[in-house]
Amino acid sequence: MARYTGPKVKISRRLGVNIYENEKGARALDARPYPPGEHGRDRQRLSEYALQLREKQKLRYTYGVLERQFRRLYQEAARRPGITGHNLLAYLELRVDNVVYRSGWARTRPQARQFVSHGLITVNGKRVTIPSLRVRPSDVVALGSKTADLIAIRHNLDTLDRIVPPWLERNGEATATTVLAVPMREQIDVPVDEAMVVELYSR
User: Fold this and answer.
1) Are the C-beta atoms of residues 89 and 188 closer than 8 Å to each other?
2) Where along the chain do its domains lie?
3) In whole angstroms, what is the distance from residue 92 CA to residue 56 CA?
4) Global pTM?
5) What is the Cα Rg of the chain in Å?
């Protein structure tokens, strides 16, 4: 399964956002709030193309999607009725690894991806191992029978106190999450200008 395995802090500094939402990335941005490299402090004003590319890279790295897969998602979003950028964000949010992250079971999206890859998650009662699987309204994403008691997951639930977005509903035991609807743009808190991504691909 292809995934990015390079230096994560460098990506966060280049994009100016703590993409992986980890403590190391936050500390690096506080200490060196400028792009990496010899000329990071002195970088000139970005061109329109560079700004569009940066927004695309933010989305790609945030959700852990490689370029070819991201392009296919964009093309599918462009064919669907509605605003292309909003469709694209909704597709990314409906990935099963993102639902695991939004449910508070995983500290970061990479950790959520790992949980899915290791078969710790079920969708409608069936074990899944594909992080990019897209769920639909009324689907139930749940922890496996032996997964709910894992120390890492219990620790995340006890310490993160993550608010589940309104398009999801987590049960009282926090062991299952139901997808209520396709997320609206205002329900997605990813700091990205999706319109610039659409402009980039429309060139």
Assistant:
1) yes
2) 1-47, 95-185
3) 13
4) 0.86
5) 18
* 95-185 topology per CATH: 3.10.290
pLDDT tens column, 26-85? 666 666 666 666 555 656 677 899 899 999 999 999 999 999 999 999 999 999 999 999
Structure letter (DSSP) for residue 186: G
Which residue from 14, 56, 10, 11 is spatially nearest to 201, judged by alpha carbons?
56
Q: How confident is the model over 190-199, as pLDDT tens digits?
A: 989 999 999 9
DSSP codes joined into one string, 90-134: HHHHTBHHHHHHHTTS-SSHHHHHHHHHTT-EEETTEEE--TTPB
CATH annotation of 1-47: 1.10.1050.10
Cβ proximity of 65 and 92 under 8 Å: yes
Q: What are phi and psi of 11, to 5 degrees?
A: -65, -45
Closest to 32 in 3D by CA, of 48, 44, 5, 14: 14
Fill in the amino acid letter for 100.
V
Q: Provide CB contacts within 8 A for 133, sequence distance 6+.
A: 95, 96, 116, 123
